[in-house]
Design goal:
Layout: E1 2-6, H1 21-32, E2 39-41, E3 44-51, E4 54-61, H2 68-79, E5 86-92, E6 100-104, H3 112-121, E7 126-131, H4 141-145, H5 154-166, H6 168-172, H7 176-187, H8 193-207, H9 220-246
Parallel strand pairs: 1-4, 1-5, 5-7
Antiparallel strand pairs: 2-3, 3-4, 6-7
Helix pairs in contact: 1-5, 2-3, 5-7
C-alpha cells in the first residue's frame, strides 16, 4: 500500500496559501484518479483509492503543519507502510515557482512539516518538491508561505497540479524519473508551465500573418529637386552633343 501525504494547514483561511500546495496536490490526485470521499482518520482527512493497480491512501494532516508527523506517523504505524512507499507533497521555497523535483531522503531545509514527519519516521521517504519561490529575504519567508498565491500564479499552478495528478500512476509504481518526464511532457517544456506558456504565446505570435510593409513615400520637395537636376543634366548633354557636331 502507498501513502500519499499532502502538507498544509487546516481551515479555509489557509486554503489558498503557498504553504498549502501539498493539500492542493493530493486534492487534484483525488479528483483525477476517482478517489472516494474524504473521511476523518489518523488525525487528518483521508481518502482511499487505487492507482495503477496499487492501493493508495491520500492523507491531509489536520494537526497544523508543525505537527504533521503525528498524523502521518499514526497512519504509517497502523497500516504498516514502508518508508519507500510514503510520498510527501509540499511547498519548496528553494525552487522557482512552477518547478518540480522529486527526491528520496535528505535534509528538511527548514520545512517544519518535513521536520515533524522525520521526527516520527526518519528521513527515508519520497518528497515531491513543488516550487513556490523565495521572497528574497529570510525574514519574509513565514509571511510569504502563509500568503495566498497571486492571481498570476494560477497560470502555472493549475496546469502543474493537473499534470501531477495525471502522472500519479508513476509515483504509485515508484517510477520517479518517469513521473517527472510525464509532468514535463504535459506542461510542454522542461517541467515549467511558465516556459510552456511563453512558448505558446510566441508560437501564436509567429502564426499571425505579417502585414505588408508600405513603401516609403517621397517628399514632394525632394521629387521636384530630383526632376530639376535630371532636366539640367539632359540639357547639358544636348549642348555638348551640338558642339561636337559643329566641330
Amino acid at each position: 500500500m502507498k501513502l500519499f501525504v499532502g502538507l498544509g494547514n487546516p481551515g479555509s483561511e489557509y486554503s489558498a496559501n503557498r504553504h498549502n500546495v501539498g493539500f492542493m496536490a493530493v486534492d487534484a490526485v483525488a479528483r483525477t484518479q476517482g478517489f472516494g470521499p474524504w473521511k476523518r482518520k489518523f488525525q487528518g482527512l483521508a481518502a482511499d483509492g487505487e492507482i495503477a493497480g496499487e492501493k493508495v491512501l491520500l492523507l491531509k494532516p489536520q494537526t497544523y503543519m508543525n505537527e504533521s508527523g503525528r498524523s502521518v506517523g499514526e497512519a504509517v504505524r497502523f497500516l504498516k507502510i514502508a518508508d519507500e512507499d510514503i510520498v510527501v507533497f509540499y511547498d519548496e521555497i528553494d525552487l522557482a515557482p512552477g518547478k518540480l523535483k522529486v527526491k528520496t531522503g535528505g535534509g528538511n531545509a527548514g520545512h517544519n512539516g518535513l521536520r515533524s514527519i522525520s521526527a516520527h519516521l526518519g528521513n527515508d521517504y519520497v518528497r515531491v518538491r513543488i516550487g513556490v519561490g523565495h521572497p528574497g529575504v529570510k525574514e519574509l519567508v513565514a509571511r510569504w508561505v502563509l500568503s495566498d498565491f497571486a492571481k498570476a500564479d494560477r497560470e502555472w499552478l493549475e496546469p502543474l497540479l493537473e499534470a501531477i495528478a495525471e502522472a500519479a500512476p508513476r509515483l504509485a509504481r515508484n517510477d520517479q524519473s518517469r513521473f517527472l518526464t510525464d509532468v514535463a511532457r504535459a506542461l510542454g517544456e522542461s517541467g515549467d508551465p511558465r516556459k510552456a506558456a511563453s512558448r505558446d504565446a510566441a508560437a501564436e505570435t509567429a502564426e499571425q500573418p505579417s502585414k505588408p510593409v508600405a513603401k516609403a513615400r517621397s517628399h514632394p520637395a525632394g521629387e521636384r529637386r530630383g526632376k530639376s537636376a535630371g532636366a539640367l543634366a539632359e540639357n547639358l548633354k544636348k549642348w555638348l552633343a551640338g558642339r561636337k557636331a559643329d566641330d
